[in-house]
User: Which sequence fits this backbone?
C-alpha cells in the first residue's frame, strides 16, 4: 500500500469520526432543531451541512486535494444507507413496496442530498487549501 493510499484512508477515518463527533455534540445544543427549514423540495438543515463541510475539511487537510472525490463518495454512500433504511423501515407501515418508498423518500430529500454533497466537496477542497497554505506562506530560504 502506498503512502498516498494510507493518507486517504486516515483522512476518511478522520473525516467520518469528526462528522460523528460534531453531530453528537450538536445534540447538546437545545436550539439546533430551529435551523431546519422545510422547502418544496424537502428539508434543509444548514447547520448539518456546515458540520459536514468542517468534517470533510479535516480529511482534506490531511490528504490534500485527492480527498475531494473521496469525501463526495463517502457522503453519497452515507446518504444511500440512510435512504435505504428509511425506505425499508417505512415500507411495512404504509403497505407499499420498498422501491416506491425509496423513490418518495429520495424526492423528499433530494435537496438535502445535493447540499450535503456540495458541502462535502467544498469542505474537502478548503481543507486541502489549508494544507497547502503554510507551505505557500513560508519564506524562501534562498
Assistant:
Amino acid at each position: 500500500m502506498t503512502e498516498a493510499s494510507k493518507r486517504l484512508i486516515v483522512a476518511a477515518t478522520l473525516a467520518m469520526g469528526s462528522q460523528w463527533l460534531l453531530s453528537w455534540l450538536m445534540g447538546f445544543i437545545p436550539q439546533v432543531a430551529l435551523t431546519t427549514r422545510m422547502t418544496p423540495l424537502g428539508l434543509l438543515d444548514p447547520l448539518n451541512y456546515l458540520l459536514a463541510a468542517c468534517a470533510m475539511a479535516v480529511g482534506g487537510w490531511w490528504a490534500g486535494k485527492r480527498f475531494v472525490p473521496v469525501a463526495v463518495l463517502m457522503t453519497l454512500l452515507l446518504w444511500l444507507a440512510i435512504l435505504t433504511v428509511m425506505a425499508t423501515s417505512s415500507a411495512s407501515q404504509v403497505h407499499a413496496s420498498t422501491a416506491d418508498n425509496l423513490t418518495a423518500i429520495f424526492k423528499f430529500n433530494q435537496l438535502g442530498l445535493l447540499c450535503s454533497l456540495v458541502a462535502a466537496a467544498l469542505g474537502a477542497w478548503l481543507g486541502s487549501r489549508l494544507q497547502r497554505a503554510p507551505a505557500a506562506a513560508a519564506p524562501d530560504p534562498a
Summary: The two ends are 36 Å apart (CA to CA).
